[in-house]
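Aim 2 progress update. The chain analyzed this quarter is reproduced below.
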Amino acid sequence: MDIVKPIKEIFKAYDIRGKFPDEINRDVAYTIGKAYGTKLLSIGKNKCIVGYDNRESSIELSLSLSLGILSTGVDVINLGLVTTPMAIYSKEVLKIPSYVMVTASHNPKDDNGFKFSFDESGNVKGDDIDKFYNLVISGNFKEGMGKFSRYNVEKDYLELFRRGINLGDKKLKVVIDLANGTTSCIARELFEQFDIDLTIINEESDSSFPNHHPDPCVAANQKQLQDKVLELHADLGIGFDGDGDRCGIVDNLGHIIPTDIYMAIMCKDIILNNEDKRILYDVKCSNALKDEIVKWGGVPICYRTGASYTMAKVIDDNILFGGEYSGHVFFNDRIPVIGSGIYAGLRMVEVLSKTDKKLSDLVDSISKYYSTEEIKIHSPNDIKDRVIEDIKKYCINMRFNIDLTDGVKIIRPDSWALIRVSNTGPNITVRFEADTEDKLFLIKREFTNLVNYFNK
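Predicted structure tokens:
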């Protein structure tokens, strides 16, 4: 294998991700491994954990990455095929804060990449990824001979879930959709620990994702799950993404439950059973979530978008529950913060097992708002930041009530508009919400036109 200079475009805001083999291949993985090992040694670390998802290219990339790390003198503990939350939990078990997970999460089947941490601060993100890119292309790497070993985290992971889930007396009929992704390596074993009437679809591990794309936050990918829930008269359905760190929920009527509404249901249990009442959510979440937090005596904390940022905030501020609209949720009340989609799904099963109400009834009890999905408007990378800055200046001049936590959020008594830079592509992302459909139409038209005006 050769040391190469990877293209800058694969170094994203939260991870490294690109097409295999054109953008990410064995030489790129080897080079990244050498840079990673060098970085660890520079901060006093000499061991790391490596796991990989079920994509066809992941074993090859994992091996090349590991060889690069070992060549610097850093030891590698290989987990084999695991979900991302399993890899994160292995850091707790092995008391090693440094890990790399070979995965492209919910990206198309020909993509692959790396999620990673250097130390106790958690997943690398933002400016730290830019700095790591500079190390990668410098070619200035340490030399040594690390040791390779293996560890099977499955037994520890199963025990974690046994301790972290406490079902009530009501036995539920549950459908889970593994989307042929990496959760196929552990989901059945996790769910069958509990008294659940379980049906599994798309269980076979197949990185071509023959049935649908492994992203449960896209409605089209939930169609099979919705149909199966209705066919079996199930209490709920749970779908998972490619590497197991997100889930999507379908209620007993076959309706998709957005993540912010999932959190609105879940926050009651967190708030009423803990002295710490803080709940963290990102700027894209519905006002329905804030309403529900306040209703049960909680303290709402609005924060920036990004799973790595949300996870770090939950850990650093010791918040018991946090999440973001795109599907990542983080429990910190019973288990370590690992961001497991399967655990999130089982927590919803637990809530339903302790009430006579249907999931659809719980949804109906929450404040009703009218929202758009997250909408992407193409904006070249070299101008998108300028567009947001121009919109911010405009809103300040107009004396709008704005929140600058992440992008520009225009807040009105009956509606809001969020305009922010996409961290994953050449886009500006927008989302709108109002208390009536007519007001939603008006605020969407107003601020979509504003974005288009400045996006030139």
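The chain has a mean pLDDT of 97. The longest strand covers residues 427-434. These observations will guide the mutagenesis experiments scheduled for the next reporting period.
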